[in-house]
Each structure stands twice: as C-alpha cells, then as structure tokens.
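Morning!

This is the sequence you dropped in the shared folder:
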Amino acid sequence: MPKLLTKKGQDATDENYFIGGTVERLPLIEHHLVKLANSSDGWATLYQDPNDSRLWERTYSQSQLHGGGPQSLTCISVSDAQTRYGSWPNEEGIAEAYVTIHGDSWKKEDIEESVEWAKGEEWKNEIWPGNESWDHDHCQICWWKLYKSDDTEHGVGYRSKKDNWLCTECYEQLIKLKP
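The structure's back. Tokens below.
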C-alpha cells in the first residue's frame, strides 16, 4: 500500500489513517469498503468494512470550500449510523456486494461493466491454444492468466467469437445462465 499522510503529517497507513484523519486520497473507499448509504444532504456517506463489519463515515468537514474541501474518513458506532442514515443493508447485503474469484474478493460494482459485456457475448469452453504471437491471455473480468498448461485452472477457459477469454470460474459464477 502506498504511504499516505494525513493533513497533520501523520502516517496514514496505520490507525492514524482511520481515526478521523483527513487524507489526500482514500484508497480504502475505492478498493475495499462497501457503500451502504448517503446522507440526505449528500455530504456524507456510510461505508462498511467487509472484513470486520466496522462502519465508516466519509464527510467533507469544510463545506464552505468548493467541493466540500478535503475528505475525512471516521469510524462511527452503529447507533450513530442509525441516527444519521436510518437503515442500510444487513450483513447479507454486504456479502452480496462481493464475489470471490480465485480466492480474491471483488466488489461486484467494480466488475459489473465487464460482467454485463460478457453476458452479451457467446462463449465456448476451450483449451487455451497458444500461438506464435503471445504466450497467454487474461480473463476479461478478473484478469486471471490463461496459458498452455495441463492445469485446467489456467489451461482451460471460455472463448468468444471475437477471441476474448473468460476464466472458468468467472464464467461459471457470473455468466452461465442459472436454471
């Protein structure tokens, strides 16, 4: 993780990052936390950490500045969240926001566009053939590497007529029509 600093110069890669420190960038929001609700005025957002269920609130404490000023991310209690946001999804709602592919958790919203695109394509299960020009391809959803291998996890996938590939796990979980 890149080193981030709070406005006060504290190292933001440890607990200082979480305890109300205003930071330049908030990669946890972009890549890890699950959005639960927005405040009625639109200046605060409630998130939850899928690993430990803690609730986090992103606010803009200097609302008089253009764009609300710098962001702040603060851990808040359930009672504070209920007071400010009313209801939000329960733990099942959080679990539904993620999918596990090859042992990694992916936010469904991060792969939604690729999944929707893939649902519009025709796919055929094939052994990755290889060729003179390149030695591998990647799944168009999770970027899993497909290459010539006896290991079916890497050597077999789903190929489109346009020569795009999906790994078997993405196809089975996200594309294959469920009965």
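Headline: The mean pLDDT is 77.

More detail when I'm at my desk.
O.
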